[in-house]
Design a protein that fits this description.
Length: about 230
């Protein structure tokens, strides 16, 4: 699970990263609202921990822009402000939960688990494209026509989940690298090509008519043979 922390207080952001890494989360950090919004708009995150008082763009503005762009990623807002009006404003902007500083680590982790569970209740655990289904709980693909299924590796799963959630749209190599390795990764685009190749082979194995088509100079798109 990948978490974005948007927090300009370096010591707090670093401490949060270490806490979340111990819980097996993958964590990216942004120290200002504008960069935080850019990262959030990629749609690669499972949750965002968002401070209110940020340079360049405050947390309320970041959240409003996220929701206006259709980004439904769960957001936990963090702030030193404990007034009711601030909490109401955050929730009205689209926050899923709200915590004031200082806070207890156990409570933060519990609230993160809660907002990501709520997201899971809204979204089906099965994503379908053509004759192929991706079970997000089991991490496997299956073909409705052949009855065959196959387990995916972590990065194969992340790749196919990204493409199936963006069906009928071109997914760029940049988006794939960001989803699989994070924004700060120095992974090369050929790494994305390797995992596309692995995933194609597994789709072929289950007998699906779905294919990952390369769009020259742009990226990849899912297609179903007729």
């Amino acid at each position: 699970m990948r978490i974005l922390i948007v927090e300009d207080e370096y010591s707090l952001a670093d401490a949060l990263r270490e806490i979340l890494k111990k819980e097996k989360y993958t964590v990216d950090i942004s120290d200002n609202g504008q960069d935080g919004l850019y990262q959030a708009l990629t749609g690669i995150y499972d949750a965002v921990v968002l401070d209110v008082m940020l340079p360049e763009m405050n947390g309320f503005e970041v959240l409003q822009n996220m929701r206006a762009e259709g980004i439904k990623t769960p957001v936990l807002m963090l702030t030193a402000k404990s007034g009711l009006d601030d909490k109401v404003q955050g929730l009205d902007c689209g926050a899923d939960d709200y915590m004031t500083k200082p806070f207890q680590t156990k409570e933060l982790l519990a609230r993160l688990r809660a907002i990501t569970r709520r997201k899971g209740e809204i979204e089906s655990s099965v994503i379908t494209f053509g004759d192929m289904e991706l079970n997000t709980n089991m991490g496997e693909i299956s073909c409705g026509k052949t009855g065959k299924s196959m387990k995916l590796g972590v990065k194969e799963f992340q790749l196919l989940e990204l493409m199936m959630k963006n069906k009928n749209q071109i997914v760029t190599k940049e988006q794939i690298v960001e989803k699989l390795w994070g924004l700060e990764s120095d992974s090369e685009y050929n790494n994305a090509e390797v995992y596309v190749s692995f995933t194609r082979k597994k789709i072929k194995f289950i007998g699906s008519k779905v294919s990952i088509k390369a769009v020259r100079g742009l990226g990849y798109i899912l297609e179903e043979a007729k």
